[in-house]
Amino acid sequence: MIAIVLFGKPGAGKGTQAEFLKDKYNLTHISTGDVFRYNIKNETELGKKAKEFMDHGELVPDSITIDMLKNEVKKNMDKAGFLFDGFPRTIAQAEALDAFLQSIHLEVTATIALEANDEVLVQRILERGKTSGRPDDQDEAKIRTRYEEYNEKTAPLIDYYKKQNKYHAVNGIGSIQEITERLSAVIDQF
């Protein structure tokens, strides 16, 4: 069983690529955003707790996020592995994910970062914003703020996973098929 962490800046194509990779490798795609939406919509205990924080404009504590992810993993142990999208975002979350996976006799197999120039990504998101309906996809200042947050909080994960020899950078520019092939070349090593 493999556990792949897919990360990159907003607009790098994580969600698009995850759709192809989950089918190709029989993986469960665990998107933090999807997990949050599911739990909130279905009014699970964790969803109610998360919504309470969100309603107050606060970040949902890692403990709630991690508990949601644990539930998703446990529900999908029949697959060939997991593709984490949007998690972990911080070193603390990465350590919590490692501890959880070890408790079920798994570990992060590899972390794959989709890399692309900020200017290309800004244009991608602005284009996506024309159809996504997300206000944060239509405001260039907000997009750049998301990149600053990524650089501050998520980029340190590169060193965290490099120290474990689990970090792989993939060029995120090109056709969807070209990028899928690059990602597959990394996953096929495992």
UniProtKB/TrEMBL annotation:
Keyword list, A-Z:
ATP-binding, Cytoplasm, Kinase, Nucleotide biosynthesis, Nucleotide-binding, Transferase
Residue ranges spanning the membrane: these are none
Which pathway?
Purine metabolism; AMP biosynthesis via salvage pathway; AMP from ADP: step 1/1
Gene Ontology molecular function: any one: AMP kinase activity
| Catalyses which reaction(s) | AMP + ATP = 2 ADP
- Going by the record, the broad EC class of this enzyme is transferase
Query: Which InterPro entries does the entry mention?
Result: Adenylat/UMP-CMP_kin, Adenylat_kinase_CS, P-loop_NTPase
| Nucleus in keyword set | no
Cellular localisation? Cytoplasm
Q: Which Pfam families match?
A: ADK
Residue ranges for the region (NMP) are 31-60
**EC number, UniProt record:** 2.7.4.3
Recorded family membership: Belongs to the adenylate kinase family.
NCBIfam families, per this entry?
Answer: PRK00279.1-3, PRK14527.1, PRK14528.1, PRK14531.1, PRK14532.1
Regarding domains, what does the record say? Consists of three domains, a large central CORE domain and two small peripheral domains, NMPbind and LID, which undergo movements during catalysis. The LID domain closes over the site of phosphoryl transfer upon ATP binding. Assembling and dissambling the active center during each catalytic cycle provides an effective means to prevent ATP hydrolysis.
General function of this protein? Catalyzes the reversible transfer of the terminal phosphate group between ATP and AMP. Plays an important role in cellular energy homeostasis and in adenine nucleotide metabolism.
This protein is called Adenylate kinase
Q: What is the lineage of its organism?
A: Bacteria, Pseudomonadati, Bacteroidota, Flavobacteriia, Flavobacteriales
